[in-house]
Amino acid sequence: MTPHKYFIVTATAPVNIAVIKYWGKRDEVLILPLNDSVSFTLSQDQLCATTTACISPAFTNDAFWLNGKEESLENPRIQNCLKEIRRRAKESCSSCGSEDDITSWPVHICSANNFPTAAGLASSAAGYAAMVVAVAEVYGVSGGDLSVAARQGSGSACRSVLGGIVRWYKGEQLDGSDSVARQVAPPDHFGELHAILCVASGRRKKTGSTEGMRRCVKTSLVMNMRLTSTVDARTKNIVKAIAEKDWSSFCDLTMSDSQEMHAACLTASPPVVYMTDTSHAVVELVHEYNRVVVKEGQPQLKICYTFDAGPNACLFVPAAAVGQVMSLLLKVFPPSDHCTLDTYLRGLPCPTPQLIP
Ligand code: DP6
Asked: What is the pTM for the complete model shown?
């Protein structure tokens, strides 16, 4: 028996959390957004996706496993990512035309998240980013902008191929060639910052982002206002706040943008409801905490929240405030016996925390 050749690469990519939301597409196939967005990529050792890609002439077809379960490869998003990477591999291929033309070898891809999939925790962003990096490397694609390939899997994924604070430019070209992500600032730009994820539910969301944004673009007046007059100005302002290391303005703009996205959702028809009573209780807690720290003359301890397409809050908290904020959260939302880390990781429902009056 002749041994078969194979190449294998494993890559990880972290979740990114948008502070200026990508919400609305100008092209649903190429996944091109209607506005620029800005995000923080969490550090590699936190919530992340790990993907292994293996190519071999012994494989008869491409195959894909997500969290241990084989998934259909008919998904056009996965197909588009693979097509884009194989196209680039052929462009820079040294083995093409020879017996060892690796660009024609099928690929097997295994991906796993270390957190619940599709619970509004940007799992697709980390997943597609890790996949694109692993598949590109296994086919020998070096250099080039991988954000363009990741974007074709899931829009927000293009920001997860870079670290720190990242801006995804919506671009103007019809083919999406200028719709790329770029780093705006390194991870430690605002000093040591923590992201506290307040998981109100680890369940799969009711309305996926694609459908949620589509409905907002078609029917919401708030969305119309966002796209015609507010979001571009807010993006400009947050980029300025980042350049000036103005943490307080960064926090205010982050919270406004989250509120605006969810206001657009609520004013869509039928409404798209992601936030729950628990989410709103977290919002109230953050505003109350900020009122006190600002009154005490410590705006550098300010914190902010942002909500993606789900009920879970992500809080950005300066290191010096983490102890205080954590004890406040635990006091207001006491951990329930039924909601352990294990319950959450397995995506089971946790009882709604009760607010202590
Ligand atoms: C609320 O990137 O999941 O998290 O491109 O349709 O896959 P598709 O959408 P996706 O949407 C993310 C929306 C968001 C905001 C953001 O991350 O910018």
From this structure: 0.90
Which ligand 1 atom sits closest to the C-alpha of 125?
2
- Indicate if ligand 1 lies below 6 Å from the C-beta of 308: yes
Atom of ligand 1 nearest to the CA of 124: 3
CA of 149 to the centre of ligand 1 (A): 15
Q: How many CB atoms lie within 10 A of CB 272?
A: 25
Query: DSSP E strands: which ranges in 47-134?
Result: 48-55, 63-66, 69-71, 107-113
Question: In the Cβ-directed half-sphere of 124, how many Cα atoms lie within 13 Å?
Answer: 19
Tell me the pLDDT tens digit for each residue of 245-283. Answer: 999 999 999 999 999 999 999 999 999 999 999 999 999
Residue 305 near residue 282 (C-beta atoms within 8 A): yes
CA of 74 to the centre of ligand 1 (A): 21
Assess whether the C-beta atom of 21 lies below 6 angstroms from ligand 1: yes
pLDDT (tens digit, 9 = 90+) per residue, 129-167? 999 999 999 999 987 889 999 999 999 999 999 999 999
**ipTM reported for the complex surpasses 0.95:** yes
